[in-house]
Each structure stands twice: as C-alpha cells, then as structure tokens.
Specification:
372 residues; alpha/beta; Rossmann fold; 3 domains; 9-stranded mixed β-sheet; 12 helices; 9 strands; 19% strand
Length: 372
C-alpha cells in the first residue's frame, strides 16, 4: 500500500512539473513582445508585478497607452532620454499621446478623416538599411512641430505620422498609430520593416522596457496586487505548487496534523466496580476458577493484541515473546501476574479479588485493552 501511495505521489509530481514546463515553453506575451525577443533583445514587460526601472533599460517602448503617465513619470522619462536612452511611443488615446508629445515640444492635431496608408516623406531615408516606402497606419492624429525641429519620416504632406527628434544624448520616435505595431498591423510588410529598422538603431542585445496599454512605476502601480503576485509570477506559482504537492503528499501518507489523543471515556466504570460485579456474579455459582480463567483469557488476549503475540502459546514461551516485543515487566510483575493466573488449585475470594485488582492495575499502567 505504501509503495502504491509513493507511485501516485510521484505521478502527480511529474504531471505538475510537466505542465509548468509546457506553460513556460509557450513564451507568454504579446506578438510585439515575442518579436522583440526573437530579435535577440532582452525585453521586460512592464506591469503591476514588474514596474518600470528606467536605469535598467537602454530603450523604453510605449505601445498603445490608454492612460497618460503621471507628471513625475514623464519627467523621469525625459531624463532617461537626455541621458542617452531611446524612447519609442506608438499610438494610444488622445490624452496620453498629447501629454507625451507636449513634453518634448510637439503637439497633436486631430484629422477629419482617418489616414490609411502613408508614404516615406524624405527621398533619403532616415533608416537606410531596409527602407519601407509605404506603411499602413490607421491614424486619426498627426504631429506638428512646436518650437523645435523634428524629422518627419512618414506622413502625408505636412502631416507627420512617424517622426523622430534628438533630445540631449538620446533619441525619441513618435508614431500616432497604435495599429502600426499591433498584431494585425505587423502582418503588413512595410510595418514589419519599419519595426526592424527602428530596432536596428539600438545596441545589440539591448535591454528594452515594453509597456503595453499602461505604463506602471512604483508610484502608479496598484497597491492590492497580492493575488496577481501569487498567481501571475513564477515565484508565486512555484509556492502554490509546492503547497499543493505537500498537501497531497500528507493526504496520501495518511498523516495527521497533531498528536493522536486517547479516546475520551466519560462513562467508564471504575475498576473496583467491575471486579466486585464479576465476583458476585460468579460467586453465586461457586465458580471462582471460571472467573479466574475468564480474567486470564481476557488478559492474555489483550496482551497478545497489544504486543502482537499469540495468546495461545505456553506460559513460558508467551512471556519470552512479550519480553522480546518490549512488554513492561518491572521487577517481574508481569511474569508473576501471568503465572498467578495459571494456578490450578482452589482460590479464595480474597485471592481472586487481589489478582483482579493487579490485572486492572497493569492494564492502567500499560494502557492495554480497558473494560468499559
């Protein structure tokens, strides 16, 4: 039975381990996250569990933000760029985009009609390695200069959809299209080429912080993220699996949580009451030897059950087996008691009562079968 329990436990452990490995092998993340990883960049997905750490990144990629960063966060992003970092902002709602472009001296203008395809503006491409002449943007806004010069990469006329500018030691790329680098947008060869060209401006194996939808820092992340920490991080899932495996292991092994307690006996008879009752019962028939034999048989049976010894063995062999099994025999009390129970001559009522009390006392001391 124990071997079967261990086999079941090992099977469960292997199943959970394989499921965890298979989940990890799926490379969780968006299409953009996976593509950047395939390009050999070290990408960190910015989330509530992993807020932004600008000092650890070479580039910050903000994709389709639906909420603008805090004012202090924008200031830190500006410092990050001025210190040599690269910022790529790809679309988002109007408020989020407006606050980001305004921080770099630009402004947004809403269009009456959506822009579908836009073309490269400059005859000499800014990214000459694999220039894309046309990209698919699905944009509703364009970028205008506001007291500073920018390079318009893609757009229509004076309407810039993809622009770039220098700021301090770093560079910023703005595109007003969230569709450009989305899963559907990257199916367009021009869009995919543009992404490749942008990434080619970064150092090899660069560290990229990727924020999709929301940009989280220690200031803006939600405070009640314990459940997400447990169930959405490798460390939390590992702790859950360990607790589950430990519980199953203890359950299959049949272990109790705590020390076993003796059964509580609220209505247990006194030993003397039992002795007197049995003596009076058999005294009427003048069968003291029958009483003694009854006490002996019950006592030997209880000793046999307690120490796993055959009660039908001879007295000497029975005592030797009990001693080998660890039976309590201080000063030969058990040996003398068993031999007294084997007497064959007449026995008085006082002797019978004294033997019965000794038997009951030994039961109490050794905690063997008790009479209720």
């Amino acid at each position: 039975m124990r071997i079967l329990q261990r086999l079941i436990f090992i099977l469960i452990l292997i199943t959970l381990t394989c499921s965890q490995i298979s989940c990890d092998s799926l490379e969780q993340g968006s299409v953009l996250y996976l593509i950047l990883g395939k390009l050999k960049f070290r990408v960190t997905a910015i989330s509530t569990e992993f807020p932004s750490r600008l000092k650890s990144y070479d580039a910050l990629f903000l994709q389709d933000l639906n909420k603008a960063p805090l004012e202090t966060e924008i200031e830190k992003i500006q410092d990050f760029v001025r210190d040599g970092g690269t910022l790529i902002v790809s679309g988002g709602n109007h408020q989020a985009m407006a606050e980001l472009v305004a921080a770099f001296g630009l402004r947004l203008r809403r269009l009456e009609n959506r822009l579908g395809f836009v073309h490269r503006i400059s005859d000499e491409p800014f990214l000459p390695l694999h220039p894309a002449d046309e990209i698919h943007v699905q944009a509703y806004f364009v970028i205008e200069t506001f007291e500073r010069d920018i390079a318009m990469l893609y757009g229509r006329g004076n309407n810039g959809v993809v622009v770039t500018l220098r700021d301090g030691e770093g560079r910023v790329f703005f595109t007003t299209s969230a569709y450009l680098f989305s899963e559907d947008g990257l199916r367009n060869s021009g869009n995919a080429t543009l992404l490749y060209n942008l990434m080619s401006t970064l150092p090899r194996n660069a560290r990229i912080g990727l924020a999709e939808g929301r940009y989280y820092t220690h200031e803006s992340k939600p405070s009640d993220s314990f459940v997400a920490l447990v169930f959405k991080t490798p460390g939390g899932l590992a702790a859950v699996y360990i607790c589950l495996i430990l519980f199953l292991f203890l359950t299959l092994r049949g272990r109790r949580f705590g020390k076993p307690l003796d059964v509580r006996e609220n209505n247990r008879r006194l030993s003397s009451e039992y002795v007197y009752a049995m003596t009076r019962l058999y005294q009427k028939a003048n069968t003291r030897m029958e009483i003694l034999r009854h006490i002996r048989d019950r006592f030997r049976a209880d000793l046999g059950i307690r120490w796993r010894v055959n009660p039908n063995l001879g007295t000497t062999t029975f005592l030797e087996e009990l001693t080998q099994r660890g039976a309590v025999d201080e000063e030969g009390n058990l040996t003398n008691l068993v031999r007294d129970l084997e007497r064959s001559g007449n026995i008085s009522e006082a002797q019978l009562l004294e033997i019965a009390k000794r038997v009951e006392a030994y039961r109490e001391t050794s905690k063997i079968g008790r009479t209720k």
